[in-house]
Amino acid sequence: MEIIIRDAEEGDVGKILEIINYEILNSTVVYDYNERTYEFQLNWLRQKKKDGMPVIVAESKIGVIGYGTFGIFRPFDGYRFSVEHSIYVDKEYRAHGMGKQLLQELITLAKKNGFHTMIAGVDASNERSIEFHKKFGFKEIGTFKEVGFKFDRWLDLLFLQLLLK
């Protein structure tokens, strides 16, 4: 399957919304409970662009099948060189290399823009995501126990880090 990684455009918001809402309703990859609206997701994209943060999509001949982004890790001046990323791939197109291509592009963009470190916050039970990140050189840094609550259970959040040298 041929994939193109490109900057997200406003016309991609509907598919981005479909992907994230599936994850909200069916997984613990994001600790939200309620589906997002089109307006919310459009404003999110516009704010990312205004802040100079990337939103990229993986596109095949059938359209957008995944997306990735990053933003400043925490909203304080001292964190301005640290970013936290997110990658989501449509449930029908996982295990075809889209996540790898998206993460590689995010790492490239982070380096190009002078960031020092990239952080991943991953549900500690998501072994596939943890192993995925380790293949890119991310190291486990620590786990926050029972900081999330979803689907009637407490969730642990694992942080992984990649130094962008």
What does this structure look like?
It is a single chain. Strands 1-2-3-4-5-7-6 form a 7-stranded mixed β-sheet, sandwiched between helices. The chain contains 4 helices and 7 strands; from the N terminus they run βααβββαβαββ. The mean pLDDT is 96. The chain has a single domain, classed as Aminopeptidase, CATH 3.40.630. 31% of the residues lie in helices and 35% in strands. Strand 4 (82-89), helix 3 and strand 5 (117-123) form a beta-alpha-beta unit. It is an alpha+beta fold.
Q: Which radius of gyration do the C-alpha atoms yield?
A: 15 Å
- Specify the number of helices: 4
- The CATH topology is given as Aminopeptidase
Largest beta-sheet characterization = 7 strands, mixed
User: How many distinct beta strands?
Assistant: 7
The CATH C-level class name: Alpha Beta
GO molecular function: acyltransferase activity, transferring groups other than amino-acyl groups
Protein name: N-acetyltransferase family protein
Pfam families: Acetyltransf_1 (PF00583)
Keywords: Acyltransferase, Transferase
